[in-house]
Amino acid sequence: MESQISYRKWIALFFAIVFSILIMLSGIAYIVDPYFRFRVRDNTYIQSELFVCSGLIDNYEYDTLILGSSMTQNFDMDSFREKLDVKPLHIGIGGATFLEINELINLAYGTGKADQFYICVDLSSFTSDSGESRIPPYLLKDDPISKLQYLLSYEPWFSYIPVDICFLMLDRAGVSLPPKFEYAKSIDKLGNWTLDYTFGEDIVLQRYKNDEFAVSEVDTADLYNRMTKHIDGYLEGFDFSKGEHNFFFPPYSSLFWCDAEDSGYFDYYLQAKKYFVERASEYGATVYDFQCAEFTMDLNNYKDTTHYSPEINDWMVDCFANNSYIITEEDMNEFQEILIQNTAAFREKYWDVLNMI
């Protein structure tokens, strides 16, 4: 009898210890809150835009949301504030899929905070099935189980909370960090990669020759039908009654379009872009097309075939403010023709170089 009582005490003690540990871990995770799930804290080291995006959308104060891939990560939020007179939140995720964009914008709809949206459109995202979202499901839900899962999950505890605590201690100790780390503590500079790369013609051509930062290969079999199917599904995932929706095609370099020609999907992209504009216009959305801009032929504005300097991001904000480079069904052919001419002129200029690569 005594042994049974002792056994029960040990079992009760074991579960009490486990429960206490879980409570302690949950409390620490709640206080540190590396993904901004419960609150937005200033001067916090942000390690992954993918994991903090939902928390920022839920808890940050904004009336304008900018969504997209790495093509948006160098936007200057002060430029949005000054030129558009808005309170912006920028969520730029490297390699963002159309499924992730749909998830995040629907999360934003639920908050009722934004009435303006600027969404980057990378045509490459429509070339294949998006698969599963990289955003953990528990970050997109508001129920108690999902919040508890966040507080006790592997990612924050073993990948992010220790680093956050370390940087908090460095801050308290008055340690001065390099600019790159200071950027990583700024919500305005979420995902900003300006300090990591240099821009220039020689750099771009060398990286292109070495196949660095190369665009993923595109399967051209039934490509147009595949892209239009994904475009339809993507646009159906928006609620266009929730505010003003502005889509924009980012200004890849002319070298990208030369490569697209050589790889056999240039015409498919132009056809898919035309289809996107037609369908988005039906929903009452505005579409900007920056891909025929003259500066796209100058590789000094780029670090590789697609990624451009922050000055280009500033120029794009000017276009938003001035309503320039808006593309419609009526002037679509004009925009497309300029892009075709720019690509041809670029190929002629770099004919010897391109033939050597």
Strand order of the biggest β-sheet? 2-1-3-4-5
Helix content: 40-55%
Number of helices: 14
Return Rg in Å. 24 Å
Number of beta-strand segments: 5
SS content category: alpha/beta
Overall pLDDT: 90
Instruction: Indicate the overall shape.
Output: globular
What does this protein look like?
The protein is of the alpha/beta class and 357 residues long. It is 52% helix and 7% strand. It has 14 helices and five strands. It has a five-stranded parallel beta sheet, with helices on both faces. Helix 1 crosses helix 5 and helix 10 crosses helix 13. The longest helix is centred in the first third of the chain and has 31 residues. It is globular, with a radius of gyration of 24 Å.
Using brief descriptors, characterize the structure shown.
alpha/beta; 357 residues; 52% helix; five-stranded parallel sheet; 14 helices
Which helices and strands appear, and what pairs or packs with what?
Blueprint: H1 2-32, H2 49-59, E1 64-68, H3 77-84, E2 88-92, H4 98-111, E3 116-120, H5 144-152, H6 154-172, H7 179-183, H8 201-209, H9 223-236, E4 244-249, H10 254-263, H11 266-282, E5 286-289, H12 310-322, H13 332-349, H14 351-356
Parallel strand pairs: 1-2, 1-3, 3-4, 4-5
Helix pairs in contact: 1-5, 2-4, 3-12, 9-11, 10-13
